[in-house]
Amino acid sequence: MTALIDLLAELFSYSFIVRAMIVGVLVALCSALLGVTLVLKRYSMIGDGLSHVGFGTLAISMSLNLAPLRVAIPVMLLAAFVLLRVSENSKIKGDAAIALISSSSLAIGVIVVSLTTGMNTDVCNYMFGSILAMSRGDVYLSVTVAALVLILYVLSYNRIFAVTFDENFARGTGIKAGRYNALIAFLTAMVIVVGMRMMGALLISSLIIFPALTSMRVFSSFKRVVICSAVLSVVCFFVGIILSFALSTPVGASIVIINLAAFCLFWAAEKLGLRA
Predict the structure, then answer these.
(1) Fewest CB within 10 A of the end CB: N or C in the chain?
(2) Which residues contact 23 (CB under 8 A, 6 or more apart)?
(3) Other CB atoms closer than 10 Å to residue 144's CB: what's the count?
(4) Alpha helices of 129-176 — where are they, by DSSP H?
């Protein structure tokens, strides 16, 4: 116990760790809340698609010496809108549209990187994540975006719930389902932008998918799944950060491994009949 306390004291003595904790908790919380809706609507891979779009955008902005995150946010919002429109109104449906756009964006990003800066440290940070890369400006931007996401989610909770479970019924009651589908996609895009700095473009979608899938192993009601996902995501983030610091492993990968372990535990609980 004493060793753990000493480890935590050392951990919080570094300012970059404190910045990472602040951003990480907010990103983990937002990702978990949105993830429940995305998984239930069978649209969970939108996170993966948008993260690849984000990498392509960041690669181009860095090659032009522009502020990566400030460029990525409007581009990601546009990408979320395009993904929705292509999926809903085209012959290219759902996962196929996501795969098409994400693979194209990733290829563009790799080509731009290879022709300009090469695979340098900044590019690797965005691909695989790095808490050392979190500047004070990144923290301010991330906190602002996360606060906006949480406020909009809470204010729209009832309508998001209705659209998630029965979109036709929601339309029948006067809810503009298309508008709330767009809201969900836009909020997801913003969370991915701020989370890529820490988790990396290749791992950020795991924060969206894992907590929701894990909670659904034990809980059956939407509200309980949402609450459990939020708590579980934050806890897994904390444990992942501690594990990364103690073992000198990559942060993003450590957090994903902890989420995987939590999923296995909840899956075992489900098999034992422990459902609520």
Answers:
(1) N
(2) 134, 138, 139, 142, 143, 146, 194, 197, 198
(3) 12
(4) 136-155, 157-165, 167-172
Distance CA 180, CA 156 (A): 8
For residue 167, give both structure tokens: 């979109």
Residue 120: per-residue pLDDT: 54
CA 186 to chain centre: 12
Residues 97, 101, 102, 103: what is their CA dihedral angle, to the nearest 10 degrees? 100
Phi and psi at 129, nearest 5°, equal: 85, 150
Strands (DSSP E) contained in 51-161 are none
The token pair that represents 221 in the structure block: 């009601």
Question: How many CB atoms within 10 Å of residue 171?
Answer: 14
- Can you give the pLDDT at residue 265? 93
Mean pLDDT across the chain, nearest whole number? 79
Q: Which residues of 179-195 are buried (b: 16+ CB within 10 A; e: fewer)?
A: ebbbbbbbbbbbbbbbb
Strands (E), 38-189: none
- Greatest distance between any 2 Cα atoms in the chain: 60
Q: Which two tokens stand for residue 220?
A: 């059956």
Residue 23 in this model has a pLDDT that exceeds 60: yes
pTM: 0.82
187: its two tokens: 């909020």
Distance (Å, rounded) from C-alpha 259 to C-alpha 257? 5
CA 209 to chain CA mean position, Å: 8
Cα–Cα distance measured from residue 20 to residue 5, given in angstroms and rounded to the nearest whole number: 19
